[in-house]
Design brief:
6 strands; 47% helix; 175 residues; Glycinamide Ribonucleotide Synthetase, Chain A, domain 4; alpha+beta; single chain; Type IV secretion system protein VirB4
Length: 175
Amino acid sequence: MFAFKRKKSKKEKQEELKKKKGYNPYLVARVQPQGGISFKENYVQTGDGLGTCIHVFDYPTEVNDFWLEQIMNMPNVITTLDVMSDDRKEVVESINKSMSEQSVRHDTAKDNIDRIDAKNEFLELEALYTDLKQGEVMKRIHIRIYVSARTIDELEKQVKEIMETLESYNCATRS
């Protein structure tokens, strides 16, 4: 005759909403920045300030022990370091291509200095190839430095200082 509908519990309602939306709106509400978030070209603006990321993409060729410490322990920033292995086949192909380029450069050089530079570069690549063939693994590192500030002027000042510091360490960066 009459069927009474059972009242859904709070947990059941939450699960139903998660399924309907395809994500957990309760989690998003707890972890999202207060005041919203908007993405600009060079920075992210949140309710409590601004933030940006500096990518370090070129590193010094000669380094001392603990050379990363001065980068990883910069004050008032969050720094991440990713280490990944390169595909051996791709590395060997790249070395082969570079060796060919240096060989052509050596053969067509008009100046002795250019010829010497090409020869030295070729010998370095040859040594690298030999190391790879003997089991060495090429690693790639990617450093990201996250900077935050209350105002755009503070953020730009901090980014400029950090980039100048990194430049003094012979690192190349982009933000």
